[in-house]
Amino acid sequence: xxxxxxxxxxxxxxxxxxxxxxxxxxxxxxxxxxxxxxxxxxxxxxxxxxxxxxxxxxxxxxxxxxxxxxxxxxxxxxxxxxxxxxxxxxxxxxxxxxxxxxxxxxxxxxxxxxxxxxxxxxxxxxxxxxxxxxxxxxxxxxxxxxxxxxxxxxxxxxxxxxxxxxxxxxxxxxxxxxxxxxxxxxxxxxxxxxxxxxxxxxxxxxxxxxxxxxxxxxxxxxxxxxxxxxxx
Length: 232
Prior knowledge:
The protein has 232 residues and is of the alpha+beta class. The chain has a single domain, classed as Rossmann fold, CATH 3.40.50. Helix content is 18%, strand content 17%. The strands form four sheets. Strands 1-5-6-9 form a four-stranded mixed beta sheet, with no helix packed on it. Strands 2-3-4 form a three-stranded antiparallel beta sheet. A hairpin with a 4-residue loop joins strand 7 and strand 8. It is globular, with a radius of gyration of 19 Å. The N and C termini lie far apart (45 Å). The relative contact order is 0.12. The C terminus is likely disordered. This is GPI-anchor transamidase. GO terms for molecular function: GPI-anchor transamidase activity. Heteropentamer. Part of the GPI-anchor transamidase complex, consisting of PIGK, PIGT, PIGS, PIGU and GAA1. Interacts with GPAA1. Interacts with PIGT; this interaction, via a disulfide link, stabilizes the expression of GAA1 and PIGK and links them to PIGS.
């Protein structure tokens, strides 16, 4: 058995909060925009604010301007762009990194218009995004080429790494991907070479320090907080 097939894409500490038939376009958009029923537990919410860096990584079957969910519905590039704009207006992110591995992947970020979004795709419009290698035991491909080479690159990233986004753009050249990966940086306020990969992958969580009294409700949700805590 090839050691390549033994890569664990989830790692040892990843919690899967939505699985199976819970993974729908509606639920995905509700999580992003925060439009969830009051009864939704914290584990199924995106508890972000205007200091949060958000990573969204999508992979699956798609085409020009859409990505399939469960082979029964699709999310379009317009729906995704509008959801990101709602997030920005509601101060739900500081910077957002969007990565998609699907056929004609670049079509999914061409409609974005909100600030501070950087986007990467495994293929250009009109191109297929190809699988890497099959598991002969079950007869299906387990991973696409772009995701495979990106994961191999990220395996060497640690919290002190100084690799930047320009390095990420080069992880799967056409000779390996058999497609033409693309990226979009015009909406991002920082130069890509100044953005560390650890700003989104493998970073150490920042802690806010305040001397103010914090009042907690029965659900332990912070309701009063110093507006500009010091970052460590």
